[in-house]
Amino acid sequence: MSVTQGERTLKLSRHEAAVEDARRFAELAVSYCTPECREAVTLAVCELGENLIKYSAGGDEANAGTIGVSVENDKVRVRAVNRVTSREDADRVSEIVRKMTVSDIKELYRERLQELFANPSLPRAQLGLLRMAFEGGFRLTCVFEAPQLQIIAERACTGA
Amino acid sequence: MGIKLGEKVTVETLTVELSTATELTLSGTLSTPTAQNEFRRLLQDLHAQIVAARTASFAVNVEALSFVNSSAIRAFVDWISRAAHAGYTLAFKTSPSVTWHRLSFSVLKSLAPGTVQIVEATAGAGGGASP
To answer: Per the structure, how many domains does chain A have?
Structure first.
C-alpha cells in the first residue's frame, strides 16, 4: 500500500487510551488548518481509530493499525490501514462505503439512528463512517489487498 | 452511579453536572471506552431518577460538549427512546458553532419529534469550543 508524501502517521496501540492519543495526534496534525477542518479530522481519526482497536485482526500484535493524516492542495486526507480477520469483514466495510457514495448521506444516517432507536439491543452502532461523511463532509473510499484494508477519507480544507 | 443535585462528576475529559433538578450539563470531550461506559451508566441512572420524580421535561445542556464519539450518539438515541416510552421530554441546549450539534441533533429530533426539543444558543454565547 502506498504512503502519501508528507503524511503524518500514528501507529495505534491496542490500549483503550489509544483513542485519546489519536485525538491529540489529529489536533497536532492539522493544528494550522481551519477550525471546521480540525473538527472534521478529529472526528475521522477518532472514529477510524476506535474501529481499528475494536475490529482489526492480529490481537497478539502491539499495534491495531496505522492512521495517517496529510494536507495537500487544499485537501485533507485521513488514511487508516489495518489487517482484517476475514474477507467478509472487508466486504462488509466495502459495501457500506459503496452505499455511502450512491445514497443521500443524511438519509442513511437518519435510517441508521432509526434502526438503533427501534432496536436498542443491536450490538454495533455502526455510525462512525456515516458520521465522517455526514458531519465531517468526507468522501470515503476503501481498498482491500488481503489481509490489509485501507480506508481513505478526503475533504476540502481551504484556508490552511 | 446516581448523580446528586449540584454534584460534578468527571470521567477523564468529560464533566457531568446535575445543575438543577431538571437540567444536566455536559462539557469536555468523550472518546474513550471508559468514559463511554460511565456515561451510559450515568444516563440510565438519571432516567430512573427522572421517572421516579415524575419530571415532565428535562434539559440537557451540551453547549460545551465539544466532541463525542459514535457511542455517545448511541447513548443519546437510547435515552431518547427511554424518554419517549416513559413520557417525558428532553430539551437539548446546543451550540450552533459546533458541527456535530448542528447536524446530529436535528436528526436525533426526527426520531421522536414529540419527545425531543432543540434549543440552540445564540452564536458566541458560551461553550462550543473546537475539540
So the answer is: 1
Return d(Cα B42, Cα B26) in angstroms, integer: 12
- How many other C-beta atoms lie within 10 A of the C-beta of residue B106? 15
**Cβ–Cβ < 8 Å for A14, A65:** no
- Give the pLDDT confidence of A98-143 residue by residue, as tens digits: 999 999 999 999 999 999 999 999 988 999 999 999 999 999 999 9
Contact between residue A44 and residue A138 where contact means Cβ atoms under 8 Å apart: yes
Q: B111 contacts in A (CB within 8 Å)?
A: 113-114, 117
Q: Phi and psi (nearest 5°) for A143?
A: -130, 130
* Residue B62: HSE in the Cβ half-sphere, 13 Å Cα cutoff: 27
CATH architecture of B8-120: 2-Layer Sandwich (3.30)
- Predicted TM-score (pTM) of this structure: 0.90
- Which of B11, B71, B99, B116 should one mutate to test binding to chain A, selecting the residue with the greatest count of A CBs within 10 A? B99
Which structural domain, as residue segments, surrounds residue A54?
8-156
Size of interface A-B (CB pairs under 8 A): 82
A64 neighbors A24 (Cβ within 8 angstroms): no
A39-55 burial code (b ≥16 CB/10 A, e <16)? bbbbbbbbbbbbbbbeb
